[in-house]
Amino acid sequence: MSDKHLILVVDDDTDLVEMISMKLESEDFRVSKAYDGIEAFDRIKEEKPALVILDVMMPRKDGYALCDELKNSDEYKDIIVVLLTAVSDAISSTNYTHMGGKTTLADDYVPKPIDLDKLVEIVKDNL
Fold first, then answer.
1. Rounded distance, CA 17 to CA 103, Å?
2. 20 to 30 A from 109, CA-CA: which of 3, 67, 84, 86?
3. Cβ–Cβ < 8 Å for 24, 9
């Protein structure tokens, strides 16, 4: 894909951020990184990415809160949001649910562990 859209990858797992970033860069995307919801919102204000890959469970501000903030903002509502969620593995120990993911205004979501090829497909379908 020759059009270099900027994608922001947000997760508190630094190894996962690196893995996703390397995969996207190998597909010719430009990538920015953040490690929690507050840092992510600062990056979004600075860089206006076309798409945000956003982990659900993070410190300081979770993915649902950030997604809703973006989608309810005139300035940022057009940014595509893909949520990453591992919540199916931890339903009994967390108040996050897939239904919660479905009722946010996210454009798509990807379960963890992440299939990188599927994630790239979703990114390309949404851009």
1. 25
2. 3
3. yes
Distance CA 106, CA 70 (A): 10
- The residue segments making up the domain with residue 46 are 6-126
Give the rounded distance of the alpha carbon of 56 from its chain centre: 8
Q: For the whole model, what pTM was predicted?
A: 0.86
Q: Which residues lie below 8 Å from residue 29, measured CB to CB, with a gap of 6+?
A: 1, 4, 5, 6, 7, 123
Tens digit of each residue's pLDDT (9 = 90 or more) over 19-36: 999 999 999 999 999 999
Q: How many domains does the chain have?
A: 1
Alpha-carbon gap, residue 11 to 52, rounded angstroms: 11
Question: Could you give the CA distance from residue 87 to residue 91 in angstroms, rounded to a whole number?
Answer: 6
CB-neighbour burial class of residue 44 (10 A; exposed 0-12, middle 13-18, buried 19+): buried
Q: Residue written as tokens 């204000």? A: 45
Tens-place pLDDT, residues 65-82: 999 999 999 999 999 999
- Whether 66 maps to a domain, the answer reads yes
